[in-house]
Amino acid sequence: MSAATNPYRSSRLEALAYRPAVDLVQRALDLGRSAIVGPMGTGKTTLLGELGQGLRARGLRVSTATVRRDERGCVEPPVLPGAADPGHAWLIDGLDLLAPWTRARWWWASRGAVVVVAAHRPLGLPVLHRTRPCADALASLVEELAGPSAPSRAWLEERLRARDGNAREVLFELYDGVRPD
């Protein structure tokens, strides 16, 4: 199978929607500053992106930033998006990777804006939403991607356990052709 026809290719994964049970856009606006919290591979980044779309639809200017580690494992802080104001929303993925003094600079610069971070811990913020490993959600996503050729739920549950609840890693396995025997 070529990358272009693989049902688990990145363009298809990126098109999947997070499925929260409540209106998180309004809740984020009400909270002002909040966090999407959960383990790796449970949908925090996807949810943060969808939240950005919802905030834009409500008329806010949305700036996004992602904190990453380089090939040596060193944290690369992104450039601050500029001064914030009440019509602005900052969505920051991975803020928990930054040193406390760097996070403090971000908090100061973002005063007045709606701020939502995606992190592995709340960082003292109200929790907007907690993501968690969920075999039902993974099975639903895989079925949406692969249709009748999707692996069984039991296999997906086993792979999710083997990957410590990281659904993204299970999807990578499927892309690489790892399938039940």
Report what the structure shows:
- The structure is a single chain.
- The chain is an alpha/beta fold and 181 residues long.
- The chain is 38% helix and 17% strand.
- Helix 5 crosses helix 6.
- The mean pLDDT is 82.
Task: Produce a short descriptive summary.
The chain is an alpha/beta fold. Helix content is 38%, strand content 17%.
Within the largest sheet, what's the order of strands? 2-5-6-1-7
> How many structural domains?
2
Q: List the secondary-structure elements in sequence, H or E.
A: HHEHEEEEHEEHHH
Radius of gyration: 18 Å
State the major sheet.
Answer: 5 strands, parallel
Number of helices: 7
- Rounded mean pLDDT is 82
Number of strands: 7
Uncertain residue segments: none
Overall geometry comes to: elongated
Helix content: 25-40%
CATH topology of the largest domain: Rossmann fold
The rounded distance between the terminal residues' Cα atoms is: 18 Å
- Which CATH architecture of the largest domain is right? 3-Layer(aba) Sandwich
CATH uppermost class of the largest domain: Alpha Beta
The secondary-structure class comes to alpha/beta
Oligomeric composition of the shown chains:
single chain
* Binned strand content: 15-25%
